[in-house]
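pls design
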């Protein structure tokens, strides 16, 4: 398996199974990002503590304490920058007690006078789908919008739906059950606990939408769409990636995002080029975004549309969706 800087890795099913095993239960509709195989520390704004403060000596020291004081088998490997925080990577998802222990010692090693170093809590995503939703007739341009409106207003009126709506992570996605069907499905991704307890609360319950009882079902993580954090293509996990080398999500160059500023000339460091739009031979002015730019890149917009993804790449290209 390819190791990438944390926060960029989205190999969900693997992590999910690792974590489920460590918890002794299996919630197959819940997934944890790579950042979950880590402890994310959040130093206060004025803190001089950075990822670089976590030298091998500091990390070894924490590992020694973890082993001797709380009999933990977790071995922290390295620290890297994650947003405004510091990501300390671990080979598995640390337990809350392990996180609290590490945090205690980090605060001891790096005392900060006012606000102590914090950590961002573990959250996961659960994937649900709601079936038999009455299809809202509308032109193809307006349909997604109108369907979404009708769905959300029904959800907010339903006793089950109103609390579910509060957990929704991003805009649900709708798909007609078949081209001429009078019903459609909604894929709903929700915030969840690591154990997936929210999903369990909702699976097999009903919400009334437009007079129809629509059942909530568990969905497979990212059903229909997977993004490879290694080569940036859609359609496979990075642990199944067959690309020769990693592609930078910022410039599509042959390096990881973490090394972008090391390998790219300072003058060109701010130039963005999408790996997918480039491979798809889109016009030069339509490539100038990062491949993880969800607002601009058409690959993001169509990421659930396997048929669309398949026909984006020139016929003989081997760099397409696997
Ligand atoms: Zn790949
Ligand atoms: Zn780059
Ligand atoms: Zn793009």
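designed seq:
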């Amino acid at each position: 398996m390819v190791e990438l800087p944390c926060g960029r890795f989205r190999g969900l099913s693997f992590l999910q199974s690792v974590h489920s095993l460590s918890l002794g239960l299996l919630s197959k509709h819940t997934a944890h990002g790579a950042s979950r195989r880590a402890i994310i520390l959040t130093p206060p704004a004025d803190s001089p503590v950075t990822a670089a403060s976590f030298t091998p000596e500091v990390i070894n020291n924490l590992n020694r304490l973890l082993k001797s004081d709380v009999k933990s088998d977790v071995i922290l490997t390295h620290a890297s920058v994650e947003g405004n925080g510091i990501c300390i990577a671990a080979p598995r998802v640390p337990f809350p007690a392990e996180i609290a222990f590490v945090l205690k010692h980090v605060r001891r090693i790096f005392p900060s006078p006012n606000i102590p170093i914090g950590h961002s809590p573990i959250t996961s995503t659960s994937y649900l789908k709601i079936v038999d939703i009455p299809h809202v007739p509308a032109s193809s341009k307006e349909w997604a919008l109108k369907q979404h409106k009708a769905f959300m207003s029904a959800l907010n009126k339903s006793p089950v739906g109103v609390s579910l709506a509060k957990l929704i992570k991003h805009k649900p996605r709708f798909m007609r059950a078949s081209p001429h069907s009078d019903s459609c499905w909604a894929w709903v991704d929700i915030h969840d606990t690591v154990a997936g307890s929210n999903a369990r609360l909702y699976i097999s319950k009903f919400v009334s939408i437009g007079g129809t009882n629509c059942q909530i079902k568990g969905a497979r993580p990212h059903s229909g769409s997977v993004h490879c954090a290694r080569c940036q293509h859609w359609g496979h996990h990075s642990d199944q990636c067959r690309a020769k080398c990693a592609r930078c999500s910022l410039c599509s160059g042959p390096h990881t995002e973490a090394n972008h500023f090391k390998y790219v000339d300072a003058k060109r460091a701010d130039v963005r080029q999408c790996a997918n739009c480039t491979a798809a031979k889109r016009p030069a002015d339509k490539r100038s975004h990062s491949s993880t730019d969800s607002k601009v890149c058409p690959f993001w917009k169509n990421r659930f549309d396997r048929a669309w993804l398949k026909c984006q790449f020139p016929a003989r290209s081997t760099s397409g969706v696997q």
